[in-house]
């Protein structure tokens, strides 16, 4: 099948790069978002998301005349749903955006069209929720239109590259739908395209992120054990990882973002009795910011009246995204423990986070600090020179929660050095 027009619903971290990627391959694309401010920014040629290469890619797509953006869905040969699927307070998946996007396609759906759901969703969403909504058009899934699930699996910070290079899973409600999905994505995907059924593809996506969450949880649990036994966790991990079949991930301040800390819940909620390990891992990762805060508090012998220069608020290194960030959770725990926290996040100045006093320059954070806490291993922080830092702060000690700094260099510059699960 050959596609000449695509309508992408949801202009977020996945939809926007995907839309401009299709446009760059000669397909006529309409990018749709219900948020009028996002559409206004995109119409003015401004990517509202910071992602390497995206701004330029967007401008090229707009200038080519093959990408238009709108708040309204339009007719097209293929529709892609790339809207967020967060969860409610009780951890049930909030599928309202998927439902609304599916409904918005109904008036435009024509015989022979292909609809693809990309949003991470609980198992059976495509067949049990999306298909019945689309059939309100009077057309029958499989017989009249094609429907598939194809999860996005790109890593923030490397989205444009991974969109092209990663293997792509396409799960059709029937083989013809999966094959049509392959024909669409192979316009830009260079990685292997693997065809399966829709529910398997949904499960694959959830398993991938759950696998990573559980592996980070065991690393975090090891960090707690190492702390109890006075073992340097980083040395222990690096030795264990020399075993040919062991690859322990990195402990840290917790797990954030919008994927790994969310997606496992879709499995827990779908089948709580069968997902007990998954739930336990979530509990460990969610409580890691509190664990690290307690560690800092005990080293400081109380935080009341102390000022902390807190470096990094993003949810992981070298991204500007502070939503669902464990570093933000850690900073809030330190504030609750009585510290004055001056947070410096060079990639997101003015993030405007409740309870967090953010400063624009590193020097402002350092000037009055009693201690320095490193929460995120941004490249800019790894490159800090301890001797130069010594001249900028009277802080007696530093705490590295993410193993980004060289203990000996900081000690040589006159700091006491602490970190997550280091020998005391
Ligand atoms: N983290 C650790 N230790 C580690 C690795 C990560 O504490 O060793 C933390 C990070 O600091 C961050 C969180 O985990 O807070 C998640 O970061 P990440 O880099 O593991 O993943 P994301 O959320 O940026 O992207 C993940 C990816 N999934 C997998 O690697 C299985 C990506 O491929 C998915 O497309 C994405 O989720 C998604 O959208 O689902």
Task: Describe the structure in brief.
The protein has helices at residues 15-24, 36-43, 54-63, 96-105, 125-134, 159-165, 175-185, 198-228, 233-240, 263-270, 276-300, 326-336, 362-367, 379-382, 386-392, 407-412; strands spanning 5-9, 28-32, 67-70, 78-81, 114-117, 146-149, 168-172, 193-197, 307-311, 340-344, 357-359, 371-374, 397-400, 416-419.
Topology of this protein?
Elements: E1 5-9, H1 15-24, E2 28-32, H2 36-43, H3 54-63, E3 67-70, E4 78-81, H4 96-105, E5 114-117, H5 125-134, E6 146-149, H6 159-165, E7 168-172, H7 175-185, E8 193-197, H8 198-228, H9 233-240, H10 263-270, H11 276-300, E9 307-311, H12 326-336, E10 340-344, E11 357-359, H13 362-367, E12 371-374, H14 379-382, H15 386-392, E13 397-400, H16 407-412, E14 416-419
Parallel strand pairs: 1-2, 1-4, 2-3, 4-5, 5-6, 7-8, 9-10, 9-12, 10-11, 12-13, 13-14
Antiparallel strand pairs: 6-7
The chain binds ligand SAJ.
Ligand SAJ is lined by residues 120, 152-156, 208-209, 212, 216, 249-250, 252, 255-257, 259-260, 315-316, 326.
Keywords, please?
424 residues, alpha/beta, Rossmann fold, 2 domains, 8-stranded mixed sheet, 6-stranded parallel sheet, 16 helices, binds ligand SAJ
């Amino acid at each position: 099948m050959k596609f000449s027009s695509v309508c992408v619903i949801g202009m977020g971290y996945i939809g926007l790069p995907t839309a401009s990627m299709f446009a760059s391959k000669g397909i006529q694309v309409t990018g749709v978002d219900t948020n009028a401010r996002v559409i206004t920014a995109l119409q003015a040629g401004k990517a509202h998301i910071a992602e390497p290469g995206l701004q330029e890619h967007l401008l090229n797509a707009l200038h080519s005349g093959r990408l238009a953006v709108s708040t309204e869905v339009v007719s097209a040969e293929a529709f892609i749903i790339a809207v967020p699927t967060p969860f409610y307070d009780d951890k049930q998946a909030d599928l309202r955006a998927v439902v609304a996007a599916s409904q918005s396609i109904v008036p435009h759906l024509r015989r022979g069209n292909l609809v693809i759901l990309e949003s991470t969703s609980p198992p059976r969403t495509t067949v049990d929720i999306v298909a019945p909504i689309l059939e309100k058009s009077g057309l029958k899934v499989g017989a009249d239109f094609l429907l598939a699930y194809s999860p996005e699996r790109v890593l923030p910070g490397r989205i444009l590259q991974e969109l092209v290079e990663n293997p792509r899973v396409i799960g059709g409600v029937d083989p013809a739908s999966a094959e049509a999905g392959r024909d669409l994505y192979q316009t830009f995907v260079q990685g292997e395209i693997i065809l399966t059924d829709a529910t398997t593809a949904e499960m694959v996506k959830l398993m991938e992120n759950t696998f990573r969450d559980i592996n980070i949880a065991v690393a975090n649990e090891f960090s707690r054990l190492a702390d109890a036994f006075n073992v340097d966790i980083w040395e222990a991990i690096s030795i264990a990882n020399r075993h040919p079949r062991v690859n322990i991930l990195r402990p840290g301040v917790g797990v954030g973002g919008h994927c790994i800390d969310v997606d496992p819940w879709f499995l827990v909620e779908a089948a709580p009795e069968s997902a007990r390990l998954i739930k336990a891992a979530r509990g460990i990762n969610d409580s890691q910011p509190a664990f690290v805060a307690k560690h800092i508090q005990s080293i400081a012998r109380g935080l009341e009246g102390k000022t902390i220069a807190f470096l990094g608020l993003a949810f992981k290194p070298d991204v500007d995204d502070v939503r669902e960030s464990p570093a933000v959770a850690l900073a809030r725990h330190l504030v609750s423990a009585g510290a004055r926290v001056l947070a410096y996040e060079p990639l997101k100045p003015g993030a405007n986070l409740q309870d967090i006093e953010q400063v624009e320059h590193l020097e402002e954070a350092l000037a009055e600090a009693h201690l320095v806490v490193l929460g995120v291993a941004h490249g800019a922080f790894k490159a800090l020179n301890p001797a130069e830092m010594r001249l900028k702060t009277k802080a007696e000690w530093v705490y590295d929660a993410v193993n980004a700094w060289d203990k000996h260099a900081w000690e040589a510059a006159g700091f006491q050095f602490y970190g997550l699960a280091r020998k005391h």
